[in-house]
Amino acid sequence: MAELFSKVTLSRRRLLVASAALTFTTLGMTAGHAQASEEDGGDIVFLIDSLGDTWIPNNSAISSFQGHIWGHVTDKLVYVDADGKASPWLAESWEQNDDATEFTLHLKSGVTFSDGAPLDAAAVIANLDIWYAGRTSEGINPIGLFPKTYDRAEAVDAATVKVYFKAPTLGFIPTLGYHGSILISPNSIAQPASDQADLSKTAGSGPYLVEAWKEGDFVRLVKRADYNWGPPAVGHTGPAFLDSITYKLVPEPSLRVASVQSGQADVAYNASPQELESLGEEGFTVATPRYLGFVNGWAINTQVAPFDDVKVRQALQAGINRQEIIDTVYTPDWLLATSFIQSNVPGATDHGDLLAYDPDRAEKLLDEAGWVKGADGIRAKDGTQLTLIVHSNPYLATSKSVDELIAQQLGKIGWKVVIRAFDVVTFGEKVRYASPTVPAYEVTRSFIDAGTVASILTDANKGENWFGLGESDAKLNDLRDRIASAGSVEIRDPLLDELQAYVLDQGYFIPRTQIVQRIYVQAPELKGEVYNGVAYASYYTARKSK
């Protein structure tokens, strides 16, 4: 590994300024597309701004950062593409009963984990069980959007699993393609959390193996020569073409981009949106895939005053100029939010009328709620200023810029907006939805099936209770339960439409924009990557030319 990071070769472009080049020499970065090879083989370097704080699979698979690595080291039962279409992967086929409470999975034969264990019915059941329950006493979390209606799974034979649910669960099959639903060896699952936190000790069945890694520095993956069970939907099932992928931590975004420009790396993650047009003109591949999931916005904690008042929440909804956010912070690749879920999610409906910028209505609502403007322009009530505390999301590079613009917009109608920023680890420790100290929790989160959404909005069945409502909103509870019990999409879709309108009208969720969380800048020599339903780039199908 030392040899890998000791070689530095400047490419023909030499766009990296001298000071940045010196910095990368100090870091010991590998030459990227300067090492380009023939059509097959070759090595790539992917620069990323974080590698998270744990490698426990259940806790890290849904991370915007670690999910890249897990997507190459592990497989899934089902493949979900960028349009939300589910297709066979390690589950070659499946059936369900009429009310979607029982599913039978037929597994692909001959699949093995990197530790030699077979990926059979027993292995799938071990994974389903830990996704559902985790081992919370050890610090191993359940997978957040795995169906809470899960009852049990049984092996019919070595290649067949029957899965039972306590209630209709239409979203089960698509959720098997969610990035948290990674298959790991039963031997790894049995390990204590301390061993699971060691990436080298976790065995997956994916097209790449972990060759080396260093906490807070890099992860190097090498291809698995005997891999032969890729998802048919991507047009390739055999071993990967690239020999290795190295994920290297480089916190500074301009340095990540400059290194791709100079040829020291092949991919820069999370570039500034304002750079994308010029980078595209220079010949670099720029990708801004939207994932299936929630839009970027705030889940409002109704337990924190003044957000226990619906008029205050509605004023917040009407006081944000979302078009100005796109025009100022982003590019035309970003779309206006029309719901609290992305418009490419099956079941999403357009409620853009509830998100129209209407500062006059916002001011009227605040007047009616008793908030009076003072000489300084800030509204107050009973001696308390109208204050919104927001915590910029470190998972989204543009979050603070959006916060600052919204603070200006809301300031015009009498809000005092306080912006706080933490790093990834501190944010994860201190900022929680429905926390007594967090009035607005910024959401950047994917999911695969819209039917799983309703169950997390309250605290029923171990729900996440995003809005601090518990069971207090009878209409929300009714919609939640009817969506959960729907036996077909024809029954469910109108309920999902009603849920979206109600949540927005009540100001429980304040959308900002549709989310493009993952931004990629890529060397032109690297081609053939595929973006899945949660917008991760898979380099399993990629090739690198000279």
From TrEMBL:
Listed GO CC annotations: ATP-binding cassette (ABC) transporter complex; outer membrane-bounded periplasmic space
Similarity section: Belongs to the bacterial solute-binding protein 5 family.
Positions of the Solute-binding protein family domain: 86-427
SUPFAM superfamilies on file: Periplasmic binding protein-like II
Name by which UniProt lists this protein: ABC transporter substrate-binding protein
GO molecular function, one term: peptide transmembrane transporter activity
Signal peptide segment: 1-36
GO biological process, one term: peptide transport
Keywords from the UniProt entry: Signal, Transport
Localization per record: Periplasm
PROSITE patterns xrefs: TAT
Major location category of this protein: periplasm
InterPro entries reported for this sequence: Peptide/Ni-bd, SBP_5, SBP_5_dom, TAT_signal
